[in-house]
Amino acid sequence: APLRVAIEADRLRSVVLWGPPGTGKTSLAQVIAGATRAGFLRLSAVTAGVKDVRAAVEQARARLAANGRRTVLFIDEIHRFNKSQQDALLPAVEDGLLVLIGATTENPSFEVNAPLLSRSLLYRLEPLADDDVRTLLRRATSDERGLPGVVVDDDATAALVAAADGDARAALTGLEGAALLAAERGAGHSVTVEMVTAVLAGPRLRYDKAADNHYDQVSAFIKSLRGSDPDAALYWLVRMLAAGEDPRFLARRMIILAGEDIGLADPAALQVAVAAFQALDVVGLPEARFALGEAALYLALAPKSNSLTRALGRADEAVARLGNAAVPAPLRDAHYRGAARLGHGRGYRYPHDDPRGWVDQQHLPDGLAPGDIYTQGEHGREPSLLRWLQERRHHQR
Predict the structure, then answer these.
(1) What whole-number distance in Å separates Cα of residue 167 and Cα of residue 328?
(2) CA distance linking residue 343 with residue 364, whole number of Å
(3) Which of 261, 297, 371, 389 is the most buried (most CB within 10 A)?
(4) What is the DSSP letter of 119?
(5) Which residues are bridge partners to 101 per DSSP?
(6) Sign of CA dihedral 379, 385, 391, 395
(7) What is the rounded CA–CA span in Å between residue 196 and residue 177?
(8) What is the structure's pLDDT at 206?
(9) Which of 288, 263, 262, 261 is nearest to 275 (CA)?
(10) The whole model's pTM is what?
């Protein structure tokens, strides 16, 4: 891999390591520290500030002047640095005085300043595969620096692997807790699945309401609703609720989808989504899951139409193109004294006076014609409006 080649050749340039907890970002930095001939400094963005960054830059400058050696600066959780703190790094990284290694669990596109990110290579570290976690646990119970002599049965190993969900640190922490419990219970070095279950509270759901997992899962939820997949819609809904998502946020997203992706194909969808939102003021979680779940299922099963979305887009274009187009005289406000002299309201035809319930009358400003904005969809209830609309437009041509 390019990163490994750069480390072994000691020609590393600035990098950002992005991945969920327990995927080896800090361990990789330690490997670099042991392999490079450059000086190595470490800061934690949780506790460090601009003063610490400037001190690191001065150390790097002094080292370069004294012996010509570069300095590698590792900043753990670099996303915790604000803009001014990150900006303080930029000159030193730009001129090569510092080789930056930034570790983050958050999307660097959102959390790392663009100038700093553009001068760094981005490497994404994925969660460990289950087999990798098993290997890690075996090494931990065989290496003298770990827990030598501890015996973990197959079921206990499977439970640790499942609960870790690709997080090496979580797997080792769970193993240590289970081994300690075994010793306290007088079970010696034998770890069972019951001990693991007692230590662990269940699978660790990766979710941060301000970061990637939040946006990815919300996106999956909306796309499952739009894609008419009731199983997936309920899965993502329940998963986000279990991770602590605000149920009102999810209800609001369903209200938006009801108008955007269902529209006139099933007008009741909007009512169902709004009712689910209102139900949250009457009952809280966990009972409110029934209202949210019912709404999610209804939206997933409802026929879909984006005719409203397309019509709004055409209306936006028309407004931008025509600007302050004049309101047709028959449609202008005529309730005040003097309006008649201006011709306001003259020629207006009242639709209820016509037995058909509509009249052939210009409602759009000049430059627009019927059908320029709205084109009916073909699913659900919307086609039932088609005959009425076609009749009107036939007479308006």
Answers:
(1) 66
(2) 17
(3) 261
(4) T
(5) 15, 74
(6) negative
(7) 8
(8) 58
(9) 288
(10) 0.55
Task: Determine contact, residues 224/238, Cβ cutoff 8 Å.
Answer: no
Distance separating alpha carbons of residues 256 and 273, to the nearest angstrom? 9
Please write the tens of the pLDDT for every residue from 8-17: 888 888 999 9
Give the burial string for 208-236 (b: 16+ CB within 10 Å, else e).
eeebbbbeebbebbbebbbeeebebbbbb
Enter the DSSP assignment of 112: S
What structural domains and CATH numbers belong to the chain?
2-124 (3.40.50.300), 130-199 (1.10.8.60), 212-301 (1.20.272.10), 327-396 (no CATH)
Q: Which two tokens stand for residue 310?
A: 């397309």
3-state class (DSSP) for residue 125: coil
Token pair 């750069």: residue: 6
Ramachandran angles phi, psi of 284, nearest 5°: -100, -175
Enumerate residue ranges in the chain where pLDDT < 50.
none
Distance CA 181, CA 173 (A): 12
Structure tokens at 82: 């604000």
Which position has the token pair 């760094």? 120
77, 45 contact by CB (below 8 A): yes
| Residue from 94, 83, 82, 97 nearest 118 by CA | 94
Instruction: Indicate left, alpha or beta for 357 from its phi (over 0: left) and psi (-120 to 50: alpha).
Output: left
Q: Evaluate the CA torsion angle 250, 252, 253, 255 in order and state its sign.
A: positive
What integer pLDDT is reported at residue 208 of this predicted model? Answer: 57
Gyration radius of the chain over CA positions? 32
Residue 293 exposure: Cα atoms within 13 Å on the Cβ side: 12
116 HSE (CA, 13 A, CB side): 27
pLDDT tens column, 146-186: 888 889 989 999 999 988 888 898 899 999 998 888 888 77
Q: Going by C-beta distance under 8 Å and a sequence separation of 6 or more, which residues neighbour residue 30?
A: none
Structure tokens at 175: 């193993």
pLDDT computed for residue 239 by the predictor: 92
Q: What Cα–Cα distance (Å) separates residue 80 from each residue in 91, 99, 209?
A: 20, 19, 16
